[in-house]
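Quick one:
INPUT:
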């Protein structure tokens, strides 16, 4: 860290190598939320096909949540389920772009910490309104959109999935 002066106040400038600032992972896979990949229709949608990586960038800027089963409900969370033993939640970002990786995905229940997406993984990704049911003592998700992700090393990682 180095200090510079701005007017009469010292300002700390943190370079990328500084321990206080952690660079975001470079191996993100981009997923664009759309109707074509939405689960819950009469036909099974095509899954998103991505290569292995340490996280996802979920981009829903082009998706209209008013056209979901609960049109008046706004998302507040994302869930990622990879099998039965890796289930995670992350807060929704009002910008409609959410970074999902080890620092943002919180394990639910007895799930193992998120370590990335590996070849052969199949993940269910849902966006919705998360709440806690006091009576049942469990997390409840009003799903607004859901999609399937398949991870394969043969998938080109450069092309975002639309």
């Amino acid at each position: 860290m180095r200090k510079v002066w701005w007017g009469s106040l010292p300002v700390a400038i943190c370079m990328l190598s500084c321990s206080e600032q952690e660079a975001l992972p470079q191996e993100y896979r981009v997923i664009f939320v759309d109707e074509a990949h939405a689960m819950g229709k009469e036909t099974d949608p095509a899954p998103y096909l991505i290569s292995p990586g340490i996280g996802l960038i979920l981009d829903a800027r082009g998706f209209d949540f008013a056209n979901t089963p609960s049109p008046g409900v706004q998302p507040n969370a994302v869930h990622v389920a990879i099998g039965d033993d890796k289930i995670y939640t992350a807060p929704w970002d009002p910008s409609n772009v959410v970074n999902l990786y080890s620092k943002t995905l919180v394990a639910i229940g007895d799930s193992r910490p998120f370590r990335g997406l590996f070849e052969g993984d199949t993940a269910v990704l849902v966006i919705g309104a998360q709440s806690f049911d006091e009576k049942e003592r469990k997390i409840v998700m009003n799903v607004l959109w859901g999609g399937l992700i398949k991870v394969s090393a043969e998938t080109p990682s450069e092309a975002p999935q639309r």
